[in-house]
Amino acid sequence: MGKAVTNGEIAIGYEYFKGVRKKPCIVVRIGNEYFTLGTFANEGNAEFFVDKLSEMVGAKEESVLAEKGGTE
């Protein structure tokens, strides 16, 4: 399950798309639309990205992508 930073409308984080990509993807979710912007080398780098992004913007991390319809 991917982790994301969200304001309720927009979520930025990472997600795995099984059967399509083997590496975790950088994802922006707006409503029901997913925008894949690139990939991380591994899950550790993806976690680091979300942690630092949440620190930078003073946001709370949430595991929302899979809950909102993303794929695991």
Overall helicity: 10-25%
Order of helices and strands: EEEEHE
Rg calc: 11 Å
Number of domains: 1
Strand content: 25-35%
Overall form: flat
Described by its quaternary structure, the protein is single chain
Report low-confidence residues grouped into runs of 5 or more. Answer: 64-72
| Count of beta strands | 5
Task: Strand order, main sheet: write it out.
Answer: 4-3-2-1-5
User: What is the arithmetic mean of pLDDT?
Assistant: 81
The total count of helices amounts to 1
Let me know the largest β-sheet: 5 strands, antiparallel
From the helix content, strand content and strand pairing, which structural class follows? alpha+beta
Q: Could you give the distance between the termini? A: 5 Å
Quickly describe the structure.
The protein is an alpha+beta fold. It is 21% helix and 33% strand.
Summary tags:
five-stranded antiparallel sheet, single chain, 5 strands, 21% helix, 72 residues, alpha+beta
Describe the structure.
- The structure is a single chain.
- The protein is built from 1 helix and 5 strands.
- With 72 residues, the chain is α+β, with helices and mostly antiparallel strands.
- The protein has one domain (4-62).
- Strands 4-3-2-1-5 form a 5-stranded antiparallel sheet, covered by helices on one side.
- β3 (25-30) and β4 form a beta hairpin.
- The longest helix has 15 residues, at 43-57.
- The model is unreliable at 64-72 (pLDDT under 50).
